[in-house]
Amino acid sequence: MKKFSIFILALSFALILSACGTSTDKSEGDKESKKLRVVTDAAYAPFEYMDKGEIVGFDVDFLKAVAKEAGYEYELVHVAFEPLLLEVKDKTADIGISAITINDERKQTYDFSVPYFLSTNKILVPEGSDIKNAADLKDKVVAVQSSTTGQEAVEKLLGKNNKNIKKFENTNLAIMELTSNGADAVVADNTVVEEYAKNNPDKKLIVIEDKGSFEPEYYGLAFPKDSKLKADFDKAINTLYDNGTYAKIYQEWFKSEPDTEDLKTQQKK
Ligand code: ARG
User: Fold this and answer.
1) Ligand 1 mean position, distance from CA 80 (Å)
2) 69 within ligand 1 shell (Cβ under 6 A)
3) Could you state, in order of their start, the residue ranges of all structural domains in the chain?
4) What residue spans of the chain are helical by DSSP H?
5) At the top level of CATH, which class does the domain 121-208 belong to?
6) How many angstroms separate the Cα of 119 from the Cα of each of 130, 165, 190, 194?
7) Hey, do 31-118+219-260 and 121-208 end up sharing a CATH topology, with the first three levels equal?
8) Rounded to an integer, what distance in angstroms lies between the CA atom of residue 178 and that of residue 123?
9) Alpha carbon of 236 to ligand 1 centroid (Å)
10) Does the C-beta of 121 come closer than 6 Å to ligand 1?
11) 151 within ligand 1 shell (Cβ under 6 A)
């Protein structure tokens, strides 16, 4: 009996010690291995969206491959689009990934990786709409996601403080405004509106391209200014271009071949 209680005592000690061990190890370990905080707006299928409580999408698989290649551990957190831009700006996050367009204005606040995806804004309208191009958006109610290049493009067409521009926290809400007749059109990234129209045939929506009004855009990972991560991630992205991993992930999501040569050429600009 005595032996047994000594054994129990020893065992509890061991348990207490090991519990202490793991808890301190874990918090220190995270700091030492620099688990990166990566922020996103997971309401932008097929790039990042929630599926059964998990963030999935092309960006998510791309990030996973790039971080692995670059040798970094990370935690991907959904914070929404404007908060993510703020976090990267304020350096409370290490990376933003969210189909983020690289442009001159943003370059003043962020450092971007090399481009990893070609995109452009397009117009989503109900079938039978009299909107046929960007100029037709004038005097129409247009829903956009706040702080996106879609908002910027529509402001250029309609005027910056035009009340006909309805701004939403995410693109899904902008599309809901359209499908519930609160707006005549949505302007957002082509892949996102095309995917929505295709996956929701009952909504009877069509996508309009207007190359004269909407420029080609390239997505990049956003880093805080002067982040040391950029060099490692750029190198890793280029490795994925060269070893076929990028094309494989692209194929899985878009069922077509990426123009990797074009993406590489953009780096030289
Ligand atoms: N490419 C556009 C931009 O950078 C839209 C990005 C929106 N991304 C998102 N996950 N909601 O402004």
Assistant:
1) 10
2) no
3) 31-118+219-260, 121-208
4) 2-32, 58-70, 81-89, 104-107, 149-158, 171-179, 190-199, 229-242, 245-254, 260-267
5) alpha beta
6) 25, 22, 7, 12
7) yes
8) 11
9) 23
10) no
11) no
CATH of 31-118+219-260, one of 3.30.1360.170, 3.40.190.10, 3.40.30.10, 2.40.128.20: 3.40.190.10
Tens digits of pLDDT across the chain (269 residues): 455 555 554 545 454 444 444 433 333 334 346 799 999 999 999 999 999 999 999 999 999 999 999 999 999 999 999 999 999 999 999 999 999 999 999 999 999 999 999 999 999 999 999 999 999 999 999 999 999 999 999 999 999 999 999 999 999 999 999 999 999 999 999 999 999 999 999 999 999 999 999 999 999 999 999 999 999 999 999 999 999 999 999 999 999 999 999 999 999 88
What is this structure's pTM? 0.88
Residue type, 35: K
**Contact between 169 and 146 (Cβ < 8 Å):** yes
| Contact by Cβ (8 Å): 159, 137 | no
C-alpha neighbours within 13 Å on the C-beta side of residue 211: 0
136 Cβ closer than 6 Å to some ligand 1 atom: no
**How many CB atoms are located within 10 Å of the residue 109 CB?**
12
Mutate to test the pocket of ligand 1, among 48, 97, 101 (most ligand atoms within 8 A of CB): 101
- Write the CA distances from 122 to 137, 187, 198, 214, integer angstroms: 12, 6, 14, 7
